[in-house]
Amino acid sequence: QSLKGGAGMPDDTLRSPQFIDFKKEIQSYKYKSTRLYCVKNTNDSGFFLSFRFPVGELHNLRLPLLSACFFALESEDMPREKWQSTLSELSCAVDYSCIDDYSVLTLSGANSKDMESVLRCFAQLLANVHTNDSLVRNVMANYEKQRMDAKSVPNAIFGALSRYAMYGESLTRYTLSNEQLKNQNADSLCDLLRYL
Prior knowledge:
The protein has about 200 residues and is an alpha+beta fold. About 45% of the residues lie in helices and about 15% in strands.
């Protein structure tokens, strides 16, 4: 018995596969030495803009610290409270994440008409970016506490053993020491963001 019309299924439930022509679906632009790729959002009016940098934790151990301190960024023209309220008013979010070999900065929002405003505000923030040293010290203290707590969590221990088995001791121990965490300050983290 064939599938079409078989087992009580209507004939229109089975459709042939759709193959995407990526050259048509993904628009590509060149800006200076950077290649930009764009896909039009046809589902809703939201936007999602992602910047991918070819540097990650294996290039600089301090890059993951940016994700933990990203909420605390501000500038003289754009205090942290104003930046956060602007994002809230526009229903937008800015996020940073880092893995081994690359970092991603993402801007997203509910309405694509607000993308230009968010980009302008973010550029204004980055022009003179700084953050509060006490916030950075608190974040580093949280990192240190998480490390201590992880020693008593079975899943964290198993994860560390798995990484050791796969990558060996050198990559397993490739992390900032507690002393290096304590020496982090606001200026050094802002310099990292400028580095990207």
